[in-house]
Specification:
Layout: H1 22-27, E1 36-37, H2 47-58, E2 65-72, E3 75-81, H3 86-89, E4 117-118, H4 122-136, H5 161-164, H6 168-172, H7 193-199, H8 203-209, H9 224-238, H10 242-254, E5 260-261, E6 275-277, H11 279-290, E7 294-295, E8 298-299, H12 305-309, E9 314-315, E10 325-326, E11 331-332, E12 343-347, E13 351-356, E14 361-367, H13 378-388
Parallel strand pairs: 1-3
Antiparallel strand pairs: 2-3, 2-14, 4-6, 5-6, 7-8, 9-10, 10-11, 11-12, 12-13, 13-14
Helix pairs in contact: 2-13, 4-9, 7-8, 8-9
């Protein structure tokens, strides 16, 4: 769950085993077995600026922020965890406990009160990454492929030629044309499409059953159901659930060993919002993208995928200042001066993975500001870390 033109399609044919230049491997820290630590000053970061933000978080000025992690030049320069008594805070809010009760402290924000933190819609960016890996390995077809024939085992929706034209590219960019609303009504409202999907017994069938509202590829509509379609495509193409495929082809190469991924009633992974990671491991995914999908001498993502996934393919808020753009389940965030390129994986409650290639920077923020509590906004997170980082 999250809050928040036809494109020329490229085919990535680069071999997944291709290695980065030897000089890059020799000089780049690879945190497969743990992050190197450094100081802000040693990596050209204003430690006082981060300390001020740290003090604001600790004082509760931005609500229930639960963590901040900053990586510069491949080394952790700042790391904090902020604890809140969510058991007390959520007591009596909703007696029906479970993984989709956001007031259940056994599930939110940390899984079973441990170190794994809910990622919410950051899960979408990870799912997109798995799609890229599967395409590079030949287990999924190119993004120009129409997808409805790949759902032949489901009950056929009402005939509509527009739906038949939907491509994998349209699903990745949330331009499916499917009638969907999880933006104008709250997630507690039965009319919210995402909430309806999460109450259903078959999430993929629920998405397929929705009528069409536009031609695919023409209109951006934030649609968590689109990501659940990707979960099915991954399962069908690779023969594995997203979590198992990720363990083999993404998490294990990055040295990520501790994860949890919720499943829907049919057993499919909740690809749109069900992943739990630690902040340090989430930063590894940002670091992978910072290095064009290469990791310690091995290419995990096909050449060109990172550039496409983080390209401003869609303008989600045309006419607005600093309008967010969207790629393949990644957000593109223009800096205040427009001079710095940044992209992000964003999740409900305050999950932020921010990558700034121009500054060799990865930043992670976690939190659980839900419903009536304002999140620490993505632009606020980007601007504050950029204020601390030199060129």
């Amino acid at each position: 769950m999250g809050r928040e033109v036809i494109v020329v399609v490229a085919v990535w044919a680069a071999a997944c085993g291709a290695a980065p230049p030897a000089a890059t491997r020799a000089t780049t820290p690879w945190p497969t077995h743990g992050w190197d630590m450094s100081t802000p000053a040693a990596e050209g970061v204003d430690g006082d600026a981060l300390a001020r933000l740290d003090q604001e978080f600790a004082a509760g000025q931005h609500g229930q922020v639960t963590g901040m992690l900053v990586v510069r030049h491949g080394r952790i320069v700042f790391e904090r965890r902020y604890d809140h008594d969510f058991d007390r805070m959520f007591e009596g809010r909703d007696p029906v406990r479970g993984p989709y009760n956001y007031y259940d402290p056994d599930w939110h924000p940390r899984y079973q009160h441990g170190s794994l933190h809910t990622m919410q819609s950051v899960s979408k960016s990870v799912t997109s990454t798995l799609v890229g890996i599967a395409i590079g390995r030949g287990e999924l077809p190119p993004v120009a492929t129409t997808v409805m024939p790949l759902f032949s085992t489901f009950r056929a929706p009402a005939p509509d030629p527009r739906r038949d034209a939907m491509t994998l590219d349209d699903v990745l960019t949330m331009r499916t044309g499917i009638a969907w609303d999880e933006s104008t009504v709250t997630y507690t409202d039965p009319k919210n499409s995402c909430a309806g999907m999460e109450r259903s017994q078959d999430w993929v069938q629920f998405v397929l059953d929705q009528p069409m509202a536009a031609a695919p590829g023409t209109t951006f509509v934030y649609n968590s159901g689109a990501t659940e379609l990707l979960a099915h495509l991954l399962k069908q193409g690779t023969g594995k659930q997203a979590e198992d495929y990720a363990a083999e082809h993404l998490f294990r190469p990055l040295g990520i060993t501790e994860t949890y991924w919720k499943r829907t009633p049919t057993g499919l992974n909740d690809a749109e919002g069900g992943l739990y990671l630690t902040a340090r491991d989430l930063a590894k995914i940002g670091y992978l993208y910072l290095h064009d999908g290469q990791w310690d001498g091995r290419r995990l993502l096909p050449g060109g995928w990172v550039a496409k996934a983080t390209a401003p393919i869609v303008d989600t808020r045309p006419g607005q200042a600093r309008s967010r753009k969207y790629g393949y389940q990644w957000w593109v965030l223009p800096a205040a001066d427009g001079a710095v390129r940044a992209y992000a994986a964003l999740g409900y409650g305050g999950q932020r993975l921010i990558v700034v290639p121009d500054r060799d920077l990865v930043a992670v923020f976690t939190g659980w500001n839900i419903y009536e509590h304002a999140e620490f906004a993505p632009y606020a997170a980007l601007d504050r870390v950029l204020q601390a980082v030199g060129s």
